[in-house]
Amino acid sequence: MVTRLPVKFTADDRWVVTRPFMPGGEIRVRRVLDRIAKMSSSEASAVLRQVETQFASRRCWFEAELRSHFEQAVAMVPQRRDLDPTKQLLAGAYFTMEYAFASAALFNPSIVSHPDQTGIAEDSLRFVMSLRATGEGHISSIVFRTGVIGPRHEIVFDPPAEHRHRMRVSPDRRYDRNLFRRKLMEMVVEEQAVELVLANVADSFTFVELEHAIENAYHDQADSNWLCETMDSMTWLARENYQLKLPPEADLSEMVVFPQSDNESMGIEDLRLVRFVDDDYQVTYYGTYSAYNGTQVLPQLMATKDFHQLNMHTLNGACVQNKGLLCSHVGSGIAIGCVRGSMAKICI
Predict the structure, then answer these.
(1) What is the pLDDT of residues 23-52, one digit of tens each?
(2) DSSP 207-273
(3) β-strands 309-316, 343-347: how paired?
(4) Strands 168-169 and 309-316
(5) Torsion region of 209: left, alpha or beta (phi above 0 gives left; psi -120 to 50 gives alpha)
(6) Contact (CB, 8 A) for 346 and 339
(7) Contact present, 130 and 143 (Cβ < 8 Å)
(8) Cα separation, 9 vs 102, whole angstroms
(9) What CA–CA distance (Å, rounded) separates 112 from 129?
(10) DSSP letter string over 31-61?
């Protein structure tokens, strides 16, 4: 018997997150920043107050988002970094757009038990549900809802958060050197160039440390043209393996996992969650998803212990070639997905 519950998830164009808005490239960004620079302090303050009055109440972290978008704009026009703090925030507002991330559809759920079962009756279970949200331009992201399943299979969802927040990449993401090298070899890049860079990083390194090692490699080579393609591949791989963090006090339903990397530029699709208990009883939640860039679909992996820190991985191995995630039989077993260090691989 199937009992239909009075619970429906539907598209809603009122749910929005902010995104950077860079209209027309460097020339137009420069013109906007020049216009703001010519404003008087009182005029800039008045316009900024108008923006804050209209939008700040709709989400947390509003000021931090404006500052972030200003930094992305001023990277194109470094001489405008001397704008005063008020004009920097105003510039950030000019380079900010709202995106209705669930305006088209909300569908494809996946559900696992919640990592925190405190305060729940023994015959009930708190859960986490992921949903694929599709918005303008058919760009997909992942959102989460929580709730409780009762003893008679009744389901009660927690009220959704008032504000939604696009999770941002954590700058302290670390990479495992051996796994990083292995993936690069699968990508068939110049091995000599790889070793030249990786010789200058530790067994575990950050993206900034990788950038410094690449800069040193260019500096040490009189003819560096042969390095370019490999260096581009290394930075691309690092960006595809990233970490997202949600503040501890934030609710899971505030979190929007929005495309961050080149592979995901047109959508993060169809997250499938599983709760994995290791031999030492440590619990990790894994989720495979499809990364879509407009032409190709690639399988990727999310790993988390608490849903407040998400590690997004590329998958290594010959079997990881398409959305179907092909498996190869080896003796009596088959290829399985496993995690080592900070990147994922397929063990065969």
Answers:
(1) 888 899 999 999 999 999 999 999 999 998
(2) HHHHHHHHHHHHHH-SS-GGGHHHHHHHHHHHHHSEEEE--TTS-GGGEEE---SSTTTTEEEEEEE
(3) parallel
(4) unpaired
(5) alpha
(6) no
(7) yes
(8) 10
(9) 7
(10) HHHHHHHHS-HHHHHHHHHHHHHHHGGG-SS
**What is the tally of helices (H) and strands (E) in the chain?**
8, 20
Q: Which of residues 47 and 218 earns the better pLDDT score?
A: 47
Phi/psi class of residue 148: alpha, beta or left (left: φ > 0; alpha: ψ in -120 to 50)?
beta
| Token pair of 282 as six digits | 């440590």
Instruction: For the chain, give the number of residues.
Output: 348
Task: Round to whole Å and give the CA distance between 134 and 269.
Answer: 9
Task: Give the span between the Cα atoms of 96 and 247, in whole angstroms.
Answer: 22
Written as one letter, the residue type at 277 is V
Separation CA 321–CA 326 (nearest Å):
7
pLDDT at 170: 79
| Local structure of residue 248 (DSSP, 8 states) | T
- Strand partners of residue 276: 284
CB neighbour list of residue 148: distance below 8 Å, 6 or more residues apart = 120, 124, 125, 126, 127, 155, 156, 158
**Statement: the pTM of the whole predicted model exceeds 0.85:** no
Whole-number Å distance between alpha carbons of 75 and 68: 11
